[in-house]
Amino acid sequence: MMFGKSLGVALVLGLVACGGSNDNQQARTPETQTTTTGGDTSANGSSGNGSSMNGGMTNGSSSNTGTNANTNMGQGQGQGQGQGNMMQQQNTAAMLTDAQIAAISDTANKGEIEQAKLAVRKAKDAQVKQFAQMMIDHHGAEQKKEQQLCATLNLQPETTQTSTQLQTDSQNAISSLSSQTGADFDKAYIDLQVKEHKEVLDAIDTKLLPSAKNAQLKEALTAFRPKVQEHLQKAQEIQQKLGTTK
Question: Which CATH number among 3.20.20.70, 3.30.1540.10, 1.20.1260.10, 3.40.50.720 corresponds to the domain 98-241?
């Protein structure tokens, strides 16, 4: 069992524009050239004005720099918080409830049993028939255990998109297998079992066990995992003997 910069950019542009007005004011102020008596005093005065303006520009530039830094910092904090919230929402969405886990597990067991019943009737290879019977026995026993556990915990399985898709995939697989016979059926069934048991193992490890909250449910999933691993290894052995490479 994934956000806005326009406001920050506008503020920065506005601040740059405000800073630029001081530069324009300095450009428009004519330089003082003294030609009369007391020129030294006037020149000093002009020099003083220039120093004062330069000082004003320095202060303005410092103010703008500080404002820009605050704006950028605010943007960084906002983006960081947004990404953190988004990741938290994704993790929450990925988690399953115990009721949803029960539905997924029950659907997977049913699918394996139905496919195996078909294989017991149609398979020609003795090993394939034996494997199919093992699927009926193991998944049938596991289905009963989980149904009893749900009754004990008063847990009503809750259908999800995942459980619905599992059911649809299993029905499609049975329909496809039904049209095949002999060695072609044996190969198709075993190839399917390898694929499905890989997917079940991945689901147990990445979705079901990490999401399970009830200790008994988690224990049941943990206990059945070695069986699934055993099924996968056996199916792979038969697959090699049948000469399949899928």
Answer: 1.20.1260.10
